[in-house]
Amino acid sequence: MNSSASPVALDPHGLPRHVAIIMDGNGRWAKQRLLNRVKGHEKGAEAVRDTVKTCRELGIPCLTLYAFSTENWQRPSHEVEALMGLLKRFLETEYDNMTSNNIRLGVIGEIADLPSEVRVPLDRVMEGTRANDGLRLTLALSYGSRPEIVHMVRALAAAVQRGDLAPDEIHEATVSEHLYTRGLPDPDILIRTSGELRLSNFLLWQLAYTELFFTPTLWPDFNRDEFIGILRAFQNRERRFGTVDPA
């Protein structure tokens, strides 16, 4: 999906509250250019910066990026080490940008599994941006939706066992409050790049009524124009959440 759309074409009152993105295709982008896969991830970091900037400029409140899945730990060790190094560098170099642009960083996932050299700058940036009330940028790191749901079920079971919660007091809102994404609205839009047509264990509960957009564009080539084109298409969709059109 390519577009030369401009922000002027967007209805400022119809923008999504929360955009989630599966950033796929870094490795294929590099392979097409006979480059090391890490070069694709480095180029993909530029697309992250552009997307964050666009969300901030348009006033989109929340952006969640699927940066590293629980399954990604199974990749070759040298690639995992390179990805962790890129993440560390991103956190260190973007901290000033986040503070000056009122961006609040959050994380979802099995954070304890991250190496200490990543957790230290991650904690620093999250603490340093905690009071910011502009764009909420959330990175999904060592994240998988099924482990998240298991974590939620165990927390609710423990609350019931302690007598703090009765089974009939468990509702959809109770479940949402015990997920990693508590405090965030469910995504209005999910974008997946690279042409793959699957969710890959990402936000399975939260995506129940999300509008899905799949593009063949590889993540390093994803740009502002294409993003705005997707936002325009989103504004042309009818979201009935299971109801019927009253007309």
Describe the 3D structure.
- With 247 residues, the protein is α/β, with parallel strands linked by helices.
- The chain has a single domain (7-143, 188-233), classed as Undecaprenyl pyrophosphate synthetase.
- It has helices spanning 26-32, 37-58, 77-100, 116-128, 145-162, 172-177, 224-235, and strands at residues 18-22, 62-69, 104-108, 136-143, 189-192, 211-214.
- A 6-stranded parallel beta sheet has the order 3-4-2-1-5-6, sandwiched between helices.
- α1 packs across α2, α2 (37-58) packs parallel to α3 and α3 runs parallel beside α4.
- The longest helix has 24 residues, at 77-100.
Offer a quick outline of the entry.
The chain is of the alpha/beta class.
CATH homologous superfamily classification: Decaprenyl diphosphate synthase-like
E-strand count: 6
Computed over alpha carbons, the radius of gyration is 19 Å
Helix content: 40-55%
Low-confidence stretches: 1-5
Please tell me the total number of domains: 1
Order of helices and strands: EHHEHEHEHHEEH
**How is the biggest beta sheet arranged?**
6 strands, parallel
* Name given to the CATH architecture: 3-Layer(aba) Sandwich
Helix-and-strand structural type: alpha/beta
